[in-house]
Design brief:
Nuclear Transport Factor 2, Chain: A; 222 residues; globular
Length: 222
Amino acid sequence: MIATLRRGLLALLAALPLMAALPLQANAADQTAHDIVQNTTTQLLADLAANKEKYKSDPGTFYTALNGIVGPVVDADYISRSIMTVKYSNSATPEQMARFQENFKRSLMQFYGNALLEYNNQGIEVSPAKDESGDRTSVAMTVKGSNNAVYPVSYTLDKVSGQWKVRNVIINGINIGKLFRDQFAEAMRQNGGDLDKTIDGWSGEVAKAKQVTAEAADKAAK
């Protein structure tokens, strides 16, 4: 059970940037990329510590809170289009794009949310800031599991209209954005190019991604 929760937590931390679709906070322009990751992580853990039991009994409230914390620092539209790639996103309607984002977020919550609610903050540390003079940077994080294994996470952020936004995550060497792109392309192939069918069945692809990240966590723990 503990191993399952540990793997689920690690996968959720990798997937958090792909879950949001809310407007960027007004003060985000004043934050460095490092501060955005640090402050968002701190806020998330503090909110969980204060409201964990309520969230367990009311998952809908947890979903709303998680979106409110993570959403403002994420380029959700870019991530969705990146997963689809231009091959499919250029022909997708606004309704299809919105439905894909919503299905994606709901699926991530379904498969990863419980693990985060069971996490007791064994240790999450954001590494010192890197050079942020350009339009792209990365912020590293380490997550300590209950077995004292340390898992590396790296968030990629791009500057969009003067504001840093998260666009991808690499965890234990697994590029999460690429993982989902590959799965989307394979799902489209299996569905005969039916975009609606792929969007509606996306929860199954998220479940596959969870398995991949879970296996990576197991290897890192050994």
